[in-house]
Design a protein that fits this description.
mainly alpha
Length: about 90
Amino acid sequence: MLAILWTIIIGFVAGVIAKFIMPGTANEPSGFIMTTLLGIVGAFVATFLGQVTGWYPPNEGAGLIASVVGAVVVLAIFGFIQGRRRTTVL
């Protein structure tokens, strides 16, 4: 339970940092809540991939750097999907 809470806190910070690193265009999520939620998702992705590859033990979450990288990747994917969705609407 503590590991999940820690991952959420780190993901929140990682989302904010990732948004500063990758501000994006108008079609990407610019809201504070959406950015932090995507940061939390990025932290969970980084934790999952780190545990699968053996970088982290089963009950340990990803660190801040890995979470920021995960958040940037999630923001990029989300921006790409949003961009495609808005350009295909007639």
